[in-house]
Specification:
Layout (H helix, E strand, L loop, with lengths): L1 E10 L2 E11 L3 E6 L6 H8 L7 E6 L2 E2 L5 H8 L2 E4 L11 H12 L4 H14 L15 H13 L5 E5 L7 H18 L2 E5 L3 H7 L2 E6 L2 E6 L1 H4 L5 H7 L3 H13 L1
Parallel strand pairs: 3-8, 3-9, 6-7, 7-8
Antiparallel strand pairs: 1-2, 1-4, 4-5, 9-10
């Protein structure tokens, strides 16, 4: 579990994150949603240590991440997996070599063990037979699945995903969502996903945090969104016509 307590982040005197307190739960897909510029990415960068909070605490299973030494943070990051908006694969490495990269860097496994682990991860994301291909030779959806395989190779406790469905068609997005959801359950990870994708919110949002202009405006489950009376949340969620129709249908049923 990750606990955030009274987190603030200022840039040049401007408050970007304003006193955010929340909990990200183990074994669940925790989604951070909000408009562009609301502070979602800044929040995630604070969580993984790319930014230093101005004030507040971030506790990983009770361990104070903000107060750790540089060395302790490096050690802590080994428990984190990251999936970036662009899959961020190395073009010059094969699919298998990309997945092996964190194992080569951080594990004490033999080459045979690292290869076996990387192949297991590729199998887990349904990418059998793509080992020797290069990122440029596979589709965007397959690249994202390679990125997921790489992120879980070290068996992390915490998985961070920044807009994992960015640039993917709706069908492929559903595949990625299902994969992230099932992996989270299987490994009992704390998964945190930054997303704009309302299909993700309604499909896999078990714990949703809505950020509005740098503060936590709302928190709850996807099942509670449809009946929320928070105007800022409903304006954000029902910006698309499809969801407006869904909401009207729900209203008519009651």
């Amino acid at each position: 579990m990750i606990e955030v307590r009274n987190l603030c982040k200022n840039f040049d005197g401007i408050k970007v994150l304003k006193d955010i307190s929340t909990t990200f739960q183990d074994g669940k897909t925790n989604l951070i949603i909000g408009q562009s510029g609301s502070g979602k990415t800044v929040l995630m960068k604070n969580l993984v240590g790319l930014f230093e909070p101005t004030s507040g605490q971030i506790l990983y299973d009770g361990r104070d991440f903000v107060g750790m030494s540089k060395q302790e943070k490096v050690h802590m990051r080994r428990e984190m997996g990251m999936i970036f908006q662009s899959a961020a694969l190395f073009d010059s490495l094969t699919v298998l070599e990309n997945v092996m990269f964190p194992l080569d860097m951080f594990s004490s496994m033999t080459l045979r063990e690292r290869t076996r682990r990387a192949k297991e991860c590729l199998e887990r994301v349904n990418l059998i037979g793509a080992d020797e291909k290069y990122p440029g030779e596979i589709s965007g959806g397959m690249q994202k699945r390679v990125a997921i395989a790489r992120a879980i190779s070290l068996n992390p406790k915490y998985l961070f995903c920044d807009e994992p469905n960015s640039g993917l068609d709706p069908k492929t997005s559903l595949v990625i969502d299902d994969l992230l959801h099932s992996i989270t359950r299987e490994f009992q990870m704390t998964t945190i996903i930054n997303t704009h994708d309302m299909n993700s919110v309604m499909g896999i949002g078990e714990n949703i945090i809505f950020i509005y202009e740098g503060h936590k405006e709302w928190q709850g489950e996807s099942s509670q969104i449809m009946n929320s009376t928070n105007k800022r949340l409903t304006d954000f969620i029902f910006a698309s016509d499809l969801l407006k129709e869904m909401r009207q249908a729900v209203t008519h049923q009651h």
